[in-house]
Amino acid sequence: MAKEDRIPEVDIVVDHKAGVIREVHPPHKLRSRKGHERRVNASIYVVLTIISIIWLAPFVFLVLQSFRSYITENGGMVSYLIPKQFSLDNYRFLFQPESQYLRWYTNTLIIALVCAVIQTIMVLSVSYVLSRMRFRGRRFIMNMILVLGMFPGFLTMIALYFLLKQLGLTQQGAIPGLILIYVASSGMGYYISKGFFDTIPKSLDESARIDGATRFYVFKRIIMPLSKPIVIYTILMGFMGPWGDYVFASYVAFGKSESYNVAVGLFRWMNTRDLQGYFTRFCAGGVLVAIPITILFFILQRYYVEGVTGGAVKG
């Protein structure tokens, strides 16, 4: 018998009362198996610890530099990771009128909140229609959206800019222009929400319809209470997209600092000649930008994961 075909050593125990035959592994086999499991688990923990350190290192560096005082040495910026002197000067600068950081933060918050609300309504409505209703052209619409989604959005940047310029939605009107860009095609991101709605039994809809409920009533009173995870997920996605966007925001608000969002404004700081003076201020601004998203994810993490996994069951 080949070595790989050998039967492992086990003790056969016959339980006459229960009428079953059980295999009992010898103690040395059990100890060997437990030792192997401990070594595997230890290796996994080591790898995960290293990955976590690599992922967290940039954020820790960002936080440390945000508390560093503006110190020069021989005309250049002091290069060290841990500040020798901790100070809140960078954060104080952010709240001064000349920095315009609060204006950028407010612009970003307005855009993100409005887009989160409108995108959630549009995405969930489209998802529910494509999940529950059967009509002519439904399959064609889904395939067309799938094909269009393969093309990157920046291919339309020039056309969108000239269109928004004709409507007066650039520079001074950049905020409503950005909102229009973000929400115009939000219905195309229906995939995960539709997959989640597909997991909800259609018998609930049919029972309510038999009792005289309208489609909107079924959607509002029956489907939505059962879809809290996907609603939370859609809101987060609608909020995060505009919150950290730079590409569209930079060319729509080009040259008008009052219409910048946080990402564009912070990049302008890094693009100045006074890099050593604005770098620590850039880090402080980045920390304040990350705080709302971090808090939201910690609070809504359970619903976020349930929404992703639930929507991935069916397409």
Task: Describe what this molecule looks like in 3D.
- The chain is mainly alpha-helical and 315 residues long.
- The protein folds into 2 domains: 11-58; 93-311, MetI-like (MetI-like fold), CATH 1.10.3720.10.
- The chain is 65% helix and 4% strand.
- It is built from 13 helices and 4 strands.
- It has helices spanning 27-66, 89-94, 101-132, 138-148, 157-166, 174-184, 191-198, 202-210, 215-223, 228-243, 247-252, 262-270, 275-311, and strands at 11-15, 20-24, 72-73, 76-77.
- The strands form 2 sheets. It has a two-stranded antiparallel sheet with strand order 1-2.
- Strand 3 (72-73) and strand 4 (76-77) form a beta hairpin.
- Helix 3 (101-132) packs parallel to helix 6, helix 3 (101-132) runs antiparallel to helix 10 (228-243) and helix 7 (191-198) runs parallel beside helix 13.
- The model is unreliable at 1-8 and 72-78 (pLDDT under 50).
**CATH superfamily caption of the largest domain:** MetI-like
In total, how many domains does the architecture comprise?
A: 2
Structural class: mainly alpha
Count the DSSP helices: 13
